[in-house]
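hi support,

uploading two proteins for the ticket. first:
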Amino acid sequence: MDFHVAPLGMVSDASPSEAQFTEEAKDYFVEKNGVRFAGTHLIIDLWGATNLDDPAHIDEVLREAAIETGATILHGHFHHFQPNGGVSGVLVLAESHVSIHTWPEKSYAALDIFVCGVCDPYLAIPVLKRGFLPERVQLAEHRRGMQA
């Protein structure tokens, strides 16, 4: 897949991914098993991971992951820290965000994926596994905006 990568420390000017924008006003809350909530927020830890010091690779993997969830990418911003090479970055989505913070010296990455509406954040997991080849993945789910 061909992705636009913003210069380091800059905001991406890439156009939003092809998306489900409509004229109809929606609140994008979801309902599962009788519970209504704003969206699903995954907290993901990758241990024994690779390619954590390459902002272009990280940007590409996160964009593919976001698109796989069904989300609409609005902007991206990635910062490469020196001298240790860690990367912090975020993709702003119409449906919320994807963020990452990496510690290449520890082969560790902390990510979160928060999406609302019909997006499925779990579809990003195989993309993250292919892109970073972690030995171990820790995952926690939090439903945001729970309504009684």
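and the second one:
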Amino acid sequence: MTAVISEHIQISPEICGGKPHIAGHRIRVQDIVVWHEQMGISPDEIVSRHPSITLADVYAALAYYHDHFQEIRQQIQQSEQWVQELQAKIPSKVEQKLKGMNLGED
């Protein structure tokens, strides 16, 4: 018997920081989950936006997510926290310009 998910999902230390990803791609399982669950993008739409992956890849990623729920949720939280930390350290260029424009109005 062939393990279907292992045909579609890989974990390699040198790819995607060792996070589970679509085999042969740099699309992480957590990316599929965010697109589908948080952004409401259907599996068919994900494939149309990323035509190098298959519908089977997307469903394998979602199955992997449900089999490893806590692990993937933690990875998503860590990524979101990292983004927030970067945003706090690196101010938005737009915000800087707007602040500069507001200072000039006084």
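thanks. also noticed: The chain has six helices and two strands.
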